[in-house]
Structures are given as C-alpha cells and as structure tokens.
C-alpha cells in the first residue's frame, strides 16, 4: 500500500502517562519515510477527523486504562478492534477513540487503513512525568509504529 500516511499521537504530555502518544511522535522524527505526517491531538473527534482527512493510512498512538492495569502493556488494534475495545476500557480523554471511530464511520470518513497502537497506563495526573513502566515500553511502541508506517509506504519508498 502507499499514499498519504498520517501518524497521530493522542494525549497530553502534561498529564503523566497520557503523554505517550506525543512522546512517540517526537521519537519517530527521522525514523519514518519522508512524507509521513507526524502530528499530535488531544483526541477530540472532530479534530482527529480533520487530521486524517485525505489519508490512505492512519496510525493512531493512544493510551488505554484497563482494569486491572498493566502499565506498559502494548496493544495493536484494527479500527473495529479499537472501537469495541475502547468501549470497554477508558481513554484518558472525555470522548474516546471509540466515539471518534463511530463518528468517522457515520460520516464516511474512515481512512482506507487505520491501525491503533495503544499502551496501558495508570498515572495521568497533571504535572506527573511518564511512569517508569511506560518509559521502559516506549522504545518497543516506537518500533511498532515505525514498522506500521514503513508497511503503509510500501517496500519501494525511501526514508
């Protein structure tokens, strides 16, 4: 597959582990092929749809709060998996990814391919840094996202 590829790191770097999406996007600079759009979002559905408008592939980096919590555990989800999974778990945002995907589907704005790389977190307090568990899992998350981007660009795309 090829075409416009957008990576969206969802979260707030001022809220502890909720900053994993923006931290991943920052770490990807220079690691993904030229032409890849790297951006961050607070997760508000209308803004998310604007960010991925016209994209063939969208890679979303998001956090999950699960019970019981397993901070640092990584999940790779399709759009359908993410919609059902986020309905049972809590995003750290008022409206979660599930609502965003439902809105995109209702409006006919789902990209051709959407992959969600999510990490389980616990500490999203204002002013907190990334927890040790999240910091330790961040390199693997970055590797997974970069692999999704390279796959979306296809084998003949130069970095």
Note the topology.
Elements: E1 5-10, H1 20-28, E2 37-41, H2 45-52, E3 57-64, E4 74-78, H3 79-88, H4 97-106, E5 113-120, H5 132-153
Parallel strand pairs: 1-2, 1-3, 3-5
Antiparallel strand pairs: 4-5
Helix pairs in contact: 1-5, 2-4, 3-4
Fold and architecture overview:
The chain is α/β, with parallel strands linked by helices and 159 residues long. It has a single domain, classed as HybD-like (Rossmann fold, 3-Layer(aba) Sandwich), CATH 3.40.50.1450. 37% of the residues lie in helices and 20% in strands. It is built from 5 helices and 5 strands; from the N terminus they run E-H-E-H-E-E-H-H-E-H. It has helices at 20-28, 45-52, 79-88, 97-106, 132-153; strands spanning 5-10, 37-41, 57-64, 74-78, 113-120. Helix 1 (20-28) crosses helix 5, helix 2 crosses helix 4 and helix 3 (79-88) crosses helix 4. The longest helix has 22 residues, at 132-153. The two termini are 16 Å apart. Residues 87-95 have low confidence and may be disordered. GO terms for molecular function: aspartic-type endopeptidase activity; enzyme activator activity. Keywords: Aspartyl protease, Hydrolase, Protease. It holds the Pfam family HycI.
Strand order of the largest sheet: 2-1-3-5-4
Q: What is the straight-line distance between the termini?
A: 16 Å
Helix/strand/pairing category: alpha/beta
Look up the CATH topology: Rossmann fold
Strands, total number: 5
In N-to-C order, the SSE pattern is: EHEHEEHHEH
Mean pLDDT: 84
- Which CATH architecture would you pick? 3-Layer(aba) Sandwich
State the fourth-level CATH superfamily.
Answer: HybD-like
Show unreliable segments. Answer: 87-95
Family: Belongs to the peptidase A31 family.
InterPro entries: Pept_HybD-like_dom_sf, Peptidase_A31
Protein name: Hydrogenase maturation protease
GO biological process, one term: protein processing
């Amino acid at each position: 597959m090829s075409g416009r590829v957008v990576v969206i790191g969802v979260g707030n770097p001022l809220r502890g582990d909720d900053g994993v999406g923006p931290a991943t996007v920052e770490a990807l600079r220079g690691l993904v092929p030229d032409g890849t759009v790297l951006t961050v979002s607070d997760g508000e559905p209308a803004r998310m749809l604007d960010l991925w408008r016209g994209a063939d592939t969208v890679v979303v980096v998001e956090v999950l709060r699960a019970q019981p919590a397993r901070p640092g555990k990584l999940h790779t989800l399709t759009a359908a998996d993410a919609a059902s999974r986020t309905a049972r778990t809590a995003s750290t945002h008022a409206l979660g990814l599930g609502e965003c995907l439902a809105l995109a589907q209702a409006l006919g704005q789902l990209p051709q391919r959407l992959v969600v790389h999510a990490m389980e977190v616990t500490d999203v307090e204002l002013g907190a840094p990334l927890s040790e568990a999240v910091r330790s899992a961040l390199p693997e998350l970055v590797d997974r996202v970069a692999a999704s981007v390279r796959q979306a660009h296809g084998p003949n795309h130069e970095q």
